[in-house]
Design a protein that fits this description.
Structural class: mainly alpha
Largest sheet: none
Radius of gyration: 19 Å
CATH class: Mainly Alpha
Helix content: over 70%
CATH topology: Farnesyl Diphosphate Synthase
Number of domains: 1
Order of helices and strands: HHHHHHHHHHHHH
Number of helices: 13
Strand content: under 5%
């Protein structure tokens, strides 16, 4: 049991909301539009997403060990950065970490292939894109995060594709509402990754892990974070204005207060490790709260409409 606990912690489960929320959101949009909900398919979608996420997190630790990022990252550690530290603390071997990640991806793929068989081939495309970009996010030879596209890929995978995919599992179709609903989570999950790159800056730059913050420099990169936060909540307002989202979705703009707190903190403390921790927490809280409000509003919309 102790070993299983170690394996569980190695997957960085504190970030699983990044895969749980979009699955819940896509499913809630399906309910909003068609009053359809298949519990079994929902649970399988959730399991596949979590297994994929866990596997990618674990493999990211392995490849960041190989390229030296997490080994160098000592001064910039926060509760949210620097990986699980299982290899660095000699709790797990590099080989053990690698094969745990592969096993988790295989479990997710088995579930995913079953859903492809049952619900449609679009899910195969989504799964292949997620698997390929997730593995090569930090793996050679592509090392996509070092090409400056990691933030984009995370936003697409944990926003657009996850929401649309979970919607498709229920409806076997896609809709503009599902695409539009995915945008706030796409922006906010990219923002979580982005702000976590500030404490990792020195270690990432030393090993040429040229993510966006390294490419822009910390001072200039602050404004990129602000754009991501603004993009998340502007996308909700535009969705309502364009009548793609119901007006009740404007309640999901309320968590923008957390995003504003994170932006203000980053603007002032972009080069101070400990002072960034509350900003990172606020960003995570904005993602979590916004996702929960969106899901709740889609589920409750028919009640308010009937009233």
């Amino acid at each position: 049991m102790q070993r299983l606990k170690i394996y569980f912690l190695a997957t960085r489960p504190q970030f699983f909301t990044a895969s749980i929320l979009p699955v819940g959101l896509g499913t809630s949009v399906a309910w909003y539009e068609y009053k359809i909900f298949f519990l079994g398919y929902f649970l399988l979608s959730l399991l596949a997403a979590i297994f994929y996420h866990a596997g990618i997190n674990t493999l990211n630790d392995y490849f960041d060990y190989l390229n030296g990022t997490d080994n160098l990252n000592q001064t910039g550690l926060t509760p949210f950065t620097g990986g699980s530290r299982m290899i660095q603390n000699k709790v797990m071997t590099p080989q053990e970490t690698y094969w745990l990640g592969i096993a988790l991806l295989m479990l997710g793929s088995v579930i995913g292939l079953y859903l492809v068989y049952e619900r449609g081939m679009l899910l195969l495309f989504i799964g292949v894109v997620g698997l390929f970009s997730g593995y090569y996010y930090s793996a050679p030879p592509l090392f996509l995060v070092g090409k400056g596209v990691g933030e984009l890929l995370v936003g697409i995978n944990f926003g657009l594709l996850s929401v649309v995919g979970s919607y498709y599992v229920q409806i076997q179709d896609i809709s503009l509402a599902a695409v539009c609903a995915s945008l706030p989570l796409s922006f906010l999950i990219a923002a979580i990754l982005y702000i976590n790159e500030f404490p990792d800056y020195d270690a990432d730059r030393a090993v040429e892990k040229n993510q966006l913050v390294v490419r822009l420099g910390k001072k200039n990169a602050r404004w990129g974070f602000a754009l991501l936060i603004v993009g998340a909540y502007v996308s909700i307002v535009l969705g309502v204005i364009l009548n793609t989202l119901p007006g009740i979705m404007l309640f999901a703009v309320i968590p923008a207060a957390l995003g504003i707190k994170a932006v203000n903190g980053l603007l002032k403390n972009y080069d101070k490790f400990q002072e960034l921790v509350p900003c990172i927490k606020a960003t995570i809280a904005a993602h979590l709260t916004t996702g929960i409000v969106l899901i709740t509003m889609f589920l409750l919309h028919h009640c308010t409409a009937a009233a």
